[in-house]
Amino acid sequence: MNRLGPDGERLIKGDERCELRAYDDGFGNWTIGYGHTDRAGAPQVYPGMEITQAQADAIFQNDVAPCVRNAEKVAEMAPDGLTQKQKDALSSFDFNTGHLMRSRIPALVRAGRSAEVPAEMMKYVHSNGRRVLGLVNRRKHEIALWCSVDGVATDHADDPADVDVDFARAKGMHKSKIGNSAVFLGAGGAAATVTQAGNALQQAQDTMEQAQNMVQQTQDIAGSVVTLGSLAHLFTPGVMLGVVATAVCVAVWFWRHDHMVKDGI
Asked: Is 203 inside a domain boundary?
């Protein structure tokens, strides 16, 4: 029977949460109800759209139906079948990722290797190559349901190595509105940081070059002073008098020559 069990419905609705008024996620994707977007089919979501709780529940049932059918297909492959909780876990996985039938899960179930399904689920925790906390938590919830007997485990410790990206309304990676954009923004912030660091390094190099030039100029001036100092013993009073006299004679000669030229002599 193609149906979503109460545990699966609580799990998906708890992760998606419900909004009765359409909202723009900040990246141009209008969403309403339990994560419903135009990509999931009717109804089309538009700015200002409002629905009732009953309508949100009906839309959810339409959106989740294909995922439940996929989970049932996988269950039919299992040599010993799957429990309702296991099928609910697969329905949630497919609702979020859209990759149930394209993953290795069907092959694992068909081969009787259902114990390896949780590890396969945990491969789907990345968006644009980056591990995302919201997806990690979602996979943990699904794995807990897959492995549970009495219900869904609710106490899951977050991995300190996870990237803390807000995925409170995390949608499927195939229709992600927050995950991909959040990673792009993070990359953009990283790129900006690298650019700033490069500019700072260039400024430091320029300052270092200016300092080296100043040192070189100081050394040149010091060398000139030393050179003049070494010749100071040559400038005796007699030598200085001779230099002055020679300069005066040369000046008088040029003055007379200039006047003779002007007078035509």
From this structure: yes
Cis preceding-peptide flag for 43 (omega within 30 of 0): yes
257 and 201 in one domain? no
Query: Whole-angstrom Cα distance, residue 75 to residue 69?
Result: 10
The Cα–Cα gap between 11 and 174 comes to 19
Instruction: With H, G, I as helix, E, B as strand and everything else as coil, classify residue 120.
Output: helix
Which residue type occupies 22?
A: A
Q: Which residues contact 52 (CB under 8 A, 6 or more apart)?
A: 20
pLDDT at 164 over 70: no
> How far from 223 is each of 211, 215, 217, CA to CA, in Å?
18, 12, 10
Question: Are 226 and 246 found together in one domain?
Answer: no
**CA-based end-to-end distance of the chain:** 132
In a domain? residue 40: yes
Q: Give the span between the Cα atoms of 186 and 24, in whole angstroms.
A: 20
Q: In this structure, what token pair is assigned to residue 234?
A: 């040559």
> Among 39-43, 56-60, 186-190, whose mean pLDDT is lowest?
186-190
**Which of 1-15, 41-55, 143-157 shows the lowest per-residue confidence on average (mean pLDDT)?**
143-157
User: Is residue 139 domain-shared with residue 86, that is, in the same domain?
Assistant: yes
Domain extent for 199: 178-233
Distance separating alpha carbons of residues 141 and 158, to the nearest angstrom: 12
Predicted pLDDT at 241? 74
> How far apart are alpha carbons 75 and 31 in whole angstroms?
31
162 beta partners = none
How far is residue 93's CA from residue 99's CA, in Å, rounded to a whole number? Answer: 8
- The burial class, CB within 10 Å (0-12 / 13-18 / 19+), for 124 is buried
Alpha-carbon distance 209 to 127, whole Å?
44
- C-beta separation of 97 from 172 below 8 A: yes
